[in-house]
Amino acid sequence: MSGSGTLAYRYAVPSSLSRDGVLSFATSGGVTETGPTAHPYFFTGFLADPGPAAQALLACAAIARARYHVASSTLAVLIDPVVTCNTDRLRFESFSGCCGVHARLDLPPEALGAAPVASGTTNVDFNPPMRGALAGAVATAGQIFLKVGDEQVTAVTESAAIVERKVKLPARWVKGFGEVSALHARMRLVADIPGPEAQRFLASLPRAARSPLWAVPSGGRLSLAASARPGAACLAGPERLAELRPLLRFAKRLRVYAPAGPGNPPAANTLPAPSAWELTIGKARFTVTISPEKYRGFTGEGALLSALATDTAAEDAGLIGLLLGWGPVISMPDLSASSGLSPERTGAALATLASSGRVGYDLADGAYFHRELPLGAEVAKAHPRLADARSLIETGQVTLTEGGAMSGGHRVTFGTGAGGAPGDTCTCPWWGKHQGTRGPCKHVLAAHIVRRAAVGQPR
After folding, report:
1. Which of 19, 41, 83, 110 ranks highest by number of CB atoms within 10 Å?
2. Model-level pTM?
């Protein structure tokens, strides 16, 4: 960080790909198992499947430079992907400039020719010359020796850095990482199709669409529909999956995830919803998650609100944060047992950690993973909806009723799930427009806070 709201990338050397196939990623700031480090060093070794991995790295960097919504052209762009090493694997992540597309490349142990030397999170320099050289390496299909950091430069001081870039850092980037994690945790697998069908479907997608489409699975295939169907995944802005096209020649399978609808079996989500598209390429996985509509960034989805609306979440997060470790997955039962917290409080603590980017969620593993964003940003201030909910309570505008509440002059009806669950309803115009797809409204939040207090639970 350099000043308020500015992020400075400082690299001791630029990233490069040498003629003999050594891909050296320079690192800038971050956290390792031993604490904050100026130039973390995580990995040295061959990529077991270099072609798919190299193409996916280019796709991750391309999404970091892309904007899919014109009105977002004034927003800052974090062009250097975030890299996390969790004991035995590497994860490269990026957001589009409009914050409506999230990309992650997972390199599990079988994709790496050696074990990582340390765990932690950092940014890596993804400069134009290195991208050009990497594209050439994909074309020639040569071996790639990957280095993420270099132990020889870990002692270099900041004043000795020869490469520096600065970008404005809006808090929305930190929120975006948190919201995507929460949305991933709520998704379920809706389609699992083999490589040839994945190639056919993705290659046949329209370049653009004015209205959201739905990907409908049937008999090991996917087809497009103009309206929602049970078990379908929303596809708003098919052009936002364009970076999957160069990966199709490596595709082994495509898994599609969407939020679970109400009911059993799940009913159709009739309103636009986020979706995640996980392509298995060689020994690696590349996942693109898109927001419900092109103009919507992930930062306003409100997926974390219900968990954050408790008085104990911040304190519990401090305890859980100490217990995370750097293993490949975070076990919720183990965390709950070791912390002595209930599963509900453990989940709320993880949501609080997610709000500052400290955990992500892996759809393939069905579990959270530890990450420490090297953005220098503090946890965002209270979400406006949460602040408004507490204001309703403080001004005496919330009264519990049978099965619900009167909140700010609107009637709230409780669903069967946890606070702010999709089963809740409210008569306010905001809920009428979004119907729970962007998290609970302030009236629902306030009603659940008051209900928890009435039964002696933490607010």
Report:
1. 83
2. 0.86
